[in-house]
Write a structure and sequence with these properties.
Helix content is 20%, strand content 30%. By secondary structure, the chain is an alpha+beta fold. Helix 2 runs antiparallel to helix 3 and helix 5 packs parallel to helix 6.
Length: 295
């Protein structure tokens, strides 16, 4: 049975080469491939015999979370609907005190995050060039491994045990870990989960300027894209940054009740600052990623 494909309806860009049609999503992160079987009978549509698509063709959250057709492997979109789009990824999990709040009846945010991440780690293929690391961050950031490691049964077990032992307590201070993680050799995607407010400005690791960390990472990624000679040759791909905002919407800032906050930082001690209500949104949009709000 023939199917119809219309790139205009898919918010995609259409490219056609000798009967092969590519409908590329607007962010360039996925495509549907079609083979033209006969001359078009309807303007701007093609009758095709075969069509296959990546995760960007899926708009239904239930399908995304099911892992059918998304990510780089079956189950690659299980972590709150965020898809793994590379084989080299590092997770950053907020373990601040507010993660002990309720996610659903009888389950905390921390428990849900642990359950979903463990399920995703379990689904990662072994011995197939996948690289993994997981950071927890509260007052400080701590990784399970000193650097991303090739995924083996042993690595998966250590990562799952690390996640299973996470507990909520402390403040939200992710940027020490993010600044370390983005510089690693085997990382092409960082996935950051948080439910909290943080101070998002500080000394940028690669230029020592005081700036938003979202801009710090974006300028670092730009240097990679421009093949700056100061960047080692094996770090030639920019790192996509995807973010997940639990309960409060730090993607758009639409339901944030605070404007200023006093918190503790290992460098600054206690201090009061005006919060950035879209800090997770900026991290993602400035670094070729997506921010997902989960209520």
């Amino acid at each position: 049975m023939f199917q119809l494909i219309n790139c205009q309806h898919l918010r995609s860009k259409k490219k056609e080469i000798k009967g092969i049609v590519l409908c590329i999503d607007e962010k360039g992160r996925g495509a549907e491939i079609a083979i033209n079987a006969e001359s078009p009978k309807i303007n701007n549509q093609l009758t095709v015999t075969k069509s296959s698509g990546g995760y960007t063709m899926i708009s239904n959250d239930d399908l995304i979370n099911s892992g059918t057709g998304g990510g780089t492997f079956p189950g690659g979109c299980k972590f709150f609907g965020t898809c793994l789009i590379t084989k080299k990824f590092t997770f950053f999990i907020d373990v601040s005190g507010s993660m002990g709040g309720q996610y659903s009846p009888g389950k905390t945010l921390m428990e849900e995050a642990k359950e979903q991440l463990i399920a995703l780690i379990e689904a990662i293929p072994v011995n197939d060039d996948y690289y993994l690391n997981v950071y927890k961050y509260g007052n400080y950031a701590t990784p399970v491994f000193p650097r991303p490691l090739s995924v083996t049964p042993s690595v998966k077990k250590q990562a799952k045990d690390f996640v299973a032992a996470l507990s909520a307590g402390g403040w939200t201070n992710p940027f020490q870990g993010l600044s370390q993680g983005i510089q690693e050799e085997h990382v092409e995607q960082m996935i950051i989960l948080s439910d909290g407010v943080t101070y998002d400005t500080g000394s940028c690791f690669h230029n020592s300027q005081t700036m938003k960390f979202a801009d710090c990472f974006a300028s670092y990624n730009e240097k990679i894209r421009n093949n700056d000679p100061s960047i080692p040759h094996y770090k030639t791909k920019p790192v996509n940054v995807d973010t997940i905002s639990l309960k409060y919407d730090f993607c758009s800032g639409s339901n944030i009740p605070w404007t200023r906050l006093t918190m503790w930082n290992p460098i600054y001690g206690y201090f009061t600052f005006t919060i950035n209500k879209v800090w997770l949104g900026e991290l993602a949009t400035k670094n070729n990623g997506q921010c997902r709000h989960i209520q």
